[in-house]
Amino acid sequence: ISYLTYDRADMAFAHYGPFWRQMRKVCVMKVFSRKRAESWASVRDEVDKMVRSVSCNVGKPINVGEHIFALTRNITYRAAFGSACEKGQDEFIRILQEFSKLFGAFNVADLIPYFGWIDPQGINKRLVKARNDLDGFIDDIIDEHMKKKENQNAVDDGDVVDTDMVDDLLAFYSEEAKLVSEAADLQNSIKLTRDNIKAIIMDVMFGGTETVASAIEWALTELLRSPEDLKRVQQELAEVVGLDRRVEEADIEKLTYLKCTLKETLRMHPPIPLLLHETAEDTSIDGFFIPKKSRVMINAFAIGRDPTSWADPDTFRPSRFLEPGVPDFKGSNFEFIPFGSGRRSCPGMQL
Q: From CA 300, how far away is CA 273, in angstroms rounded?
């Protein structure tokens, strides 16, 4: 993890401290803000593309999982690198898939450290190649964005320019990462290096593709197995949105039963079933001593199906979230934590 995240230069795996706090603030306020997501109007093109692709295959079997994964992958890619940035997309996806395999690969050196330098499975060699490929790809993207920014500054005709995630992060760019002052405003409080920017992009690409695709696919699966709930969602969409336009962000607050359906999906099928944490200091719980830097796994899957917290926990029933006092996923109700809880909760939760 340390190697793939540029020695924990990202937000997800960085150690807790002042620099991490400012990194999270950058991500929450700039990268994952709802206002920012609403400004990515161009990525809605991907939704239209998928709808057209599916509609062209009426009456034929399609692989829903492939369509959904392609949708989330393309949206995340365009949000990160820009609407016009399609060059090398297939190559970048190949690198991401290799990273994904390496993250989950069994490494015998984890059990027998002596084998680390021998590298009997070739994992270290693959790690080096994947990092080098990623470095080259994102360095080119960053260079293009910096050149584009210089040209815009030279012209500066007053037109509003559509920016992406790389543009947002480059606003904090410096040759040397440093925390200036936590008390200063965000723009003047932190500086990010290229490695920081690359690592944050990796957080977003991993956190915004497979996990989101998994949640959507499970939601569709459960609705197909529950025709009454499917009909209720369809009826709500017809009444609130209609049949002549796409769903917009402003519609979401009015789509009550759709939101209940998504919550029920996250309860039964959290995208990350086991949430990884680490103790910051020695502690004791119920007489058990837990030393500093111990890995702690939170079983979000089991918590969401705990019969002491949920009636009929293995039954898909979105209407349960219409009941008063039902737990919410914002992290304050420990019966329902698909995004985690506390300061290390998922920053994209608000989206």
A: 5
- 237 and 203, same domain (yes or no): no
Q: Where are the beta strands (DSSP E) in the chain?
A: 178-179, 190-191, 274-278, 283-285, 288-290, 295-299
Number of separate domains in the chain: 2
Name residue 35's amino acid.
K
Rounded alpha-carbon distances, angstroms, from residue 316 to 8, 84, 103, 170, 228: 38, 41, 31, 44, 11
**185 and 82 in one domain?**
yes
**At which of 207, 242, 257 does a domain end?**
207
Is 260 annotated among the ligand-binding residues?
no
pLDDT digits (tens, 9 = 90+) for 255-302: 999 999 999 999 999 999 999 888 989 999 999 999 998 989 999 999
Same domain, 94 and 190: yes
Amino acid identity, position 117: W
**CA-based end-to-end distance of the chain:** 26
Domain region containing 31: 18-207
Coil, strand or helix: which one is 163? Answer: coil
The pLDDT tens digits of the residues spanning 303-350 come to 999 999 999 999 999 999 999 999 988 888 899 999 998 888 888 777
What's the DSSP call for residue 191? E
Among positive and negative, which fits the CA dihedral 167, 169, 171, 174?
A: negative
CA separation (Å) from 133 to 82, 120, 125, 178, 210? 20, 22, 12, 26, 21
**Structure tokens, 180:** 């200036």
Residue 290 phi/psi, 5° resolution?
-120, 110
**Secondary structure letter of residue 162 according to DSSP:** P
CA–CA dist 138, 146 (Å, integer): 12
What sign results for the dihedral spanned by CA atoms 136, 139, 141, 147?
Answer: negative
Comparing C-alpha atoms, which of 1, 8, 11 is closest to residue 204? 11
E strand or H helix that includes residue 3: none
- Quickly count: other Cβ atoms within 10 Å of residue 42's Cβ: 15
Q: Which residues contact 55 (CB under 8 A, 6 or more apart)?
A: none
Residue 161 and residue 152: Cα distance in Å, rounded?
Answer: 9
